[in-house]
Amino acid sequence: VDSIYNSDATVQILKLWDGIIVPQEGLVFHASFTDLSTADTGQELTSTAVVPTVIDGIHCVQFSSNSSRVTATIDPINNYGTTSLWFRADSYSTAALLVLSGNSGVEWNIYTRGRYISFGIGGAEHNPSEFSVNTWHHFVCTSNKGVVAIYLDGQNIYNGTLDASGGSKLKLSDSSYPYSDYLANVRVYNRPLDIDEVTLLYN
User: Fold this and answer.
1) Alpha-carbon gap, residue 12 to 128, rounded angstroms
2) CA gyration radius for the chain?
3) Which letter does DSSP use for residue 178 in this model?
4) How many Cβ atoms from other residues are within 10 Å of residue 105's Cβ?
5) Rounded-to-integer distance, Cα 142 and Cα 65, Å
6) Other beta carbons less than 10 A from residue 42's beta carbon
7) In sequence order, which residues have a C-beta less than 8 Å from that of residue 143 and are 6 or more positions away?
8) Given its phi and psi angles, is residue 21 left (phi above 0), alpha (psi -120 to 50 degrees) or beta?
9) How many angstroms separate the CA atoms of 1 and 14, rounded?
């Protein structure tokens, strides 16, 4: 069985992807980086100074210089959505942007600073959480009309209220805060995933 459908709403809910079942409903962007020109969900990717590779059996992309980045245009999440990604850092950096989703002033930022990964809005850092190097980590942030939940490696590490409106811009890394390590399976949903769905992505 490739997919499971909700027979009433006729929407795809779960999909067998690369041997695992993942949430599919509301998925507006997914990049597995097997192709650096097109996302799995069809959007054109603009890739600069990035290298596709496989680490620990996982297809990923390495950001190899200060100019490395990947950009795409997505449907706005409008304060109601989810961003999910896997990252692996070989060393700690001063400050590095992993994902920017949205427009200036109201964007979702996921970035590392030293041994911490954080979620921020408009540059305001929130809930830094410690991570280890040389291993893969799963990071997820969801917003349900401003009610935010953050997960690291399948654990719910924060719940609170934030203005997390977004726009149509999606950027992975940035020349101002370059990321020089690995990203895999970046997903954006137009709805907040629940903890069971986050667990599916993590497992």
Assistant:
1) 34
2) 16
3) -
4) 10
5) 30
6) 8
7) 77, 79, 80, 81, 82, 162, 164, 192
8) beta
9) 10
Q: Looking at this protein, which amino acid is placed at residue 26? A: G
Predicted confidence (pLDDT) per residue in 155-195, tens digit: 999 888 776 555 567 889 888 888 989 999 999 998 999 99
pTM across the whole model: 0.85
Nearest residue to 25 via CA among 44, 49, 9: 9
Specify the 3-state DSSP secondary structure of 191.
coil
Q: Give the residue ranges of DSSP H helices in the chain.
A: 195-202
Residue 195 neighbours by CB under 8 Å, 6+ apart: 149, 151, 156
Read off the DSSP letter of residue 198: H
CA torsion 30-34-36-37 (nearest 10°) is -80
DSSP 124-187: EEEEEEE--SSSEEEEEEEEETTEEEEEETTEEEEEEE------SEEEES-SSS---SEEEEEE
28: nearest Cα among 73, 79, 93? 73
- Encode pLDDT of 93-152 as tens digits: 888 888 877 655 556 788 888 899 888 765 556 667 899 999 999 999 888 887 888 999
Return the number of other C-beta atoms located less than 10 Å from residue 145's C-beta.
Answer: 13
